[in-house]
Amino acid sequence: MLSDNINFSVAVVIPTLNAENFLDQQLQSLSLQTHQPSEIWVIDSESTDRTRSIAEKWNVNFIAIDRSTFDHGATRNYGLKQTKADFVLFLSQDALPTPSLIENLCAVFMTDSQVAAAYARQIPYDTACITEKLTRRFNYPSEPSIRTYRDKETLGIKTFFLSDVCSIYRRTVFDEVGGFHSPILTNEDMLMAATLLSNGYKIAYQSNAEVFHSHNFTLKEHYKRNFDIGAFLTMYASTFQVESETGEGIKMAKMITRELLKKFKLVSLLKWLMICFAKYLGNRAGHHYTSYSLNAILKRSNNKNYWILQYQSSGLS
Asked: Which tens digits make up the pLDDT trace of 147-186?
């Protein structure tokens, strides 16, 4: 718990697109925080549902942007520039905070001045399938941790794990390193982690800071997400410079397979093996994105707008 006499401000930035199924409960949860945010900004990409009216109901700051201009890095940078707080918390629209989220996330900043960013533990919703629950358990364990650039020797690619589903940044350091890279296909958080760590800062995983968040993706969605991740890792291979990026994925696949066998969940095991295969195919294709035409990439990627803008700016067709 933080001492009552510690005075710091926290702004919340939430990029949204048709968020009516989540936003009302999310904003209610933020209103119940043990450490109240000083400001909340909803940066909306032309929602066609009740997103705006829900934001207005809670009297938070609302900015509408052209959907075609959304960028994982630039849009978050834009949101942060609207704020004045000491720390800025980024939330995905479908992440539901627990009451002490902000307080527990910020605790590590008060004890270690070199921590530049922290991220929360993701607890799966009750509606999550068993493989999604096991995936969250693997990626978000019960033990907290603090990482430095030196951990790359032992942790490999996992050193740079940071999730903007729920992450908080020390504003002075965020500004010092120039914010998120943009334009960017995906994983702006991972690239920011690499930037912070290479500049001598630390990243904290606060396991007692929790949000509810999970997805039940289709095989096609798994493929597309991993295509983008594979392409991203190829684009920034020189930044991460690890021997293998697949080690953690293989560990997770083995752990989940063992758990499903132990529970005799054979149907779920078959589905899991299909998911692993879809992820593998997507990742491999993404690594070879330069060999595909624009049309072929658009069929495989989640972020079509990024590729269209990149090809237009480069004069390719």
From this structure: 999 999 999 999 999 999 999 999 999 999 999 999 999 9
Distance CA 225, CA 237 (A): 18
The answer to whether the CB of 89 falls within 8 A of the CB of 165 is: no
> pLDDT for 102-148, tens place per residue?
999 999 999 999 999 999 999 999 999 999 999 999 999 999 999 99
Domains delineated in the chain: 10-212 (3.90.550.10), 219-314 (no CATH)
CB 146 within 8 A of CB 118: no
Residue 124 preceded by cis peptide, ω within 30: no
The answer for residues whose C-beta is within 8 angstroms of residue 304's C-beta and 6 or more apart is 298
| Among the listed residues 164, 157, 87, the one whose alpha carbon sits nearest the alpha carbon of residue 119 | 164
- Could you tell me what percentage of the chain is helix, strand and coil, using 3-state DSSP and rounding each to the nearest 5? 50, 15, 35
Rg, C-alpha atoms of the chain: 19
Dihedral angle sign, alpha carbons of residues 189, 101, 201, 245:
negative
Q: What is the pTM of this model?
A: 0.94
Residue pointed to by tokens 């994982």: 72
3-state secondary structure 145-198: EEECHHHHHHHHHHHHCCCCCEEEEEHHHHHHCCCCCCCCCCCHHHHHHHHHHH
Cα torsion angle, 277, 241, 185, 177, sign: positive
Residue spans of beta strands (DSSP E) within the chain? 10-16, 39-44, 61-64, 87-91, 96-97, 115-123, 145-147, 166-170, 202-212
Q: What is the rounded CA–CA span in Å between residue 68 and residue 49?
A: 18
- What confidence tens digit (pLDDT) does each residue in 300-315 have? 999 999 999 888 877 5
Length of the chain: 317
Environment class of 238 (CB within 10 Å of its CB; exposed 0-12, middle 13-18, buried 19+): exposed
